[in-house]
Specification:
By secondary structure, this protein is α/β, with parallel strands linked by helices. Helices cover 38% and strands 25% of the residues. The chain has nine helices and ten strands.
């Protein structure tokens, strides 16, 4: 379903999204809007439902109720969705995971080119050309012929970002992209994400990197117990949070 043109400035919209696993409600009536070109950081304690929210946006998990709209394509919970529609949806919503999910038996170039050939129908020559451009963009032009196991964790995560960008998504979803990395390697990944933000890429970032959330994001969302506790300008929430639960969480992560 394509929404009217008047809604196209909204890149992502969640309307009353609920996700349950058995008797446990992981997402409890979550509504959220992300404008085109906006960077939204989602923070909160473990078990708040942050990663599940991203997986629902990308339809890796199907919500039990509510509606999810990405780049003008709306999906209602419980509605039938064809494989073709699912591929189209995931193409506009690129996702980078905590674990890099690279194919260990393929070299770096094939890791990035393969999806372009399968999803976009590009020739191998054209896909490889684009892959090399993206590797250069993330500072890894010299790693095209290497296998993932020969690359550091930070390099593998930058390769994963290049792979997601290769499908020309409208939005990028990042699920704690530096959580598996030591601080120095994490900085390499954050630098690439900062560049994407500066270039106007719409991004939703689940992160424990408070400096990134404060300095790079345009909008901050605090999730607790499967719900949005508060949201607003990052500086405002960091300096004067509206809820005691937010204050406790920020004290815990900032005073470690």
């Amino acid at each position: 379903m394509t929404l009217p043109a008047t809604r196209q400035s909204v890149a992502i919209e969640l309307d009353s999204v609920v996700k349950r696993y058995g008797d446990h409600t992981v997402l409890d009536n979550v509504s959220l809007s992300v404008r085109e070109g906006e960077v939204v950081a989602i923070i909160g304690p473990s078990g708040a439902g942050k990663s599940t929210l991203l997986r629902c946006i990308n339809l890796l998990e199907r919500p039990d109720s509510g509606r999810i709209t990405v780049a003008g394509h709306a999906v209602d919970a419980g509605s039938e969705i064809s494989n073709k529609e699912l591929v189209a949806h995931r193409r506009v919503a690129g996702m980078v995971f905590q674990s890099f999910n690279l194919f260990p038996h393929l070299d770096v170039l094939r890791n990035i080119s393969l999806a372009q050939e399968r999803v976009l129908g590009r020739s191998r020559k054209d896909a490889d050309k684009r892959s090399k451009e993206l590797l250069d963009r993330v500072g890894l032009a010299d790693k095209a012929a290497q296998y993932p196991s020969r690359c550091s964790g930070g390099q593998q995560q930058r390769i994963a970002i290049a792979r997601a960008l290769a499908l020309e998504p409208k939005v990028m979803l990042f699920d704690e992209p530096t959580s598996a990395l030591d601080p120095e390697l994490g900085l390499e990944v954050l630098a690439v994400m900062r560049e994407l933000a500066d270039e106007g890429m719409t991004m939703v970032v689940v992160t424990h990197e408070m400096q990134f959330a404060r300095d790079v994001s345009d909008h901050l969302v605090v999730m607790v117990d499967g719900a949005v506790l508060e949201e607003g300008p990052p500086e405002e929430i960091f300096s004067k949070p509206g809820h005691e639960r937010t204050r406790r969480f920020l004290r815990a992560v900032l005073e470690r």
